[in-house]
Amino acid sequence: MNILDKITLDKRKEVTLRKSLIPTSQLEKSVLFNRPTISLANNLKNSKSGIIAEYKRRSPSKSVINNGLNVQDVAKGYENAGVCGMSVLTDGKYFGGSLDDLLTARGSCNLPLLRKEFIIDEYQILEAKAHGADVILLIAAILSRDEIKLFSEFAKRLNLDVLLEVHNEEELHKSVMPSLDMLGVNNRNLKTFAVSLETSKSLSSIIPDEFVKVSESGISNIEAIKELRPYGYQGFLIGENFMKTDNPGESAKNFISLL
Ligand SMILES: O=C(O)c1ccccc1NCC(=O)[C@H](O)[C@H](O)COP(=O)(O)O
């Protein structure tokens, strides 16, 4: 069983429990539920840097990245650095995140926020909206084409942007549909956790032009961005490279200044 299958199995149990504790009617009453959202896709189209900076404490491939920094300081630092958007991991078991992190980020900055989560149920999209997200992630490896259609159309009705993540050509062919805004290629091999920019490069030509292309994972220097841009990438999701430092905002600022 690969790591995504393991996470998804746990996620189904978690979502069943969450649904029994907080009804959807309560989520829809959140003051954030009707706030106007900010489009990450539009920001990326109009940006020079294209950086989406992530708040990440730990991951299945790194047991500790940063435990000492609070979300508020990091969100403010990223905004000050001039990033296009912020990604907040909300999975607790494998990444040490939470919906509270998303809420805190929302209260701390005006950046478009991506709820980085393993979405397997519409309920999680309502949670995302109720906690201040502007964008949701859908992962092709754990969803059928019908689910991608159902979840992305549901998100669009809530005025959320949709970032669809793929790892290979098969996932890409299965997923392309008009209700997506951005297509993300994850450079991390989920069996070995090795990262290679070649994944983004090799899939770029088969991503239709109407989608904003995002390269995800393993981006640790500006040379990587310079290598990926000629392949049409306008978005670059960076977590560990910033979060492993004492001051992720400052680190993002220096990074952007060199682009
Ligand atoms: O980061 C992991 O180890 C991981 C393992 C299994 C599924 C997802 C995983 N990460 C989620 C992400 O997509 C990354 O946090 C994001 O792309 C940023 O990556 P990085 O810049 O390499 O921290």
TrEMBL record:
Catalytic activity as recorded in UniProt: 1-(2-carboxyphenylamino)-1-deoxy-D-ribulose 5-phosphate + H(+) = (1S,2R)-1-C-(indol-3-yl)glycerol 3-phosphate + CO2 + H2O
Lineage top rank: taxon: Bacteria
SUPFAM superfamilies: Ribulose-phoshate binding barrel (SSF51366)
Associated pathway: Amino-acid biosynthesis; L-tryptophan biosynthesis; L-tryptophan from chorismate: step 4/5
EC number(s) on file: 4.1.1.48
Indole-3-glycerol phosphate synthase domain sequence ranges: 4-253
Key words of the record: Amino-acid biosynthesis, Aromatic amino acid biosynthesis, Decarboxylase, Lyase, Tryptophan biosynthesis
GO molecular function: indole-3-glycerol-phosphate synthase activity
Xref: Gene3D superfamilies: Aldolase class I
Enzyme's top EC category: lyase
InterPro entries per record: Aldolase_TIM, Indole-3-glycerol_P_synth, Indole-3-glycerol_P_synth_dom, Indole-3-GlycerolPSynthase_CS, RibuloseP-bd_barrel
Pfam families: IGPS
Annotated PANTHER family: INDOLE-3-GLYCEROL-PHOSPHATE SYNTHASE, TRYPTOPHAN BIOSYNTHESIS PROTEIN
Family per record: Belongs to the TrpC family.
Protein name stated in the entry: Indole-3-glycerol phosphate synthase
Gene encoding the protein: trpC
